[in-house]
Amino acid sequence: xxxxxxxxxxxxxxxxxxxxxxxxxxxxxxxxxxxxxxxxxxxxxxxxxxxxxxxxxxxxxxxxxxxxxxxx
Length: 72
Hints:
Elements lengths: L1 E9 L12 E14 L3 E15 L7 E9 L2
Antiparallel strand pairs: 1-2, 2-3, 3-4
């Protein structure tokens, strides 16, 4: 098992930079490599809750949970 903490910031869709419209997010991720039934490798399972903030208020602030499973 391993984990990570991440942060992101960006500004898009306009030609002029406006600092109050920057979109930011941060969160944490936990990941595990698993072998099911002694022979079936599930390469990666990830879960990551993220909190996002839209400085332009186009989209409401909120939490999203992402998940992913990669099979061999």
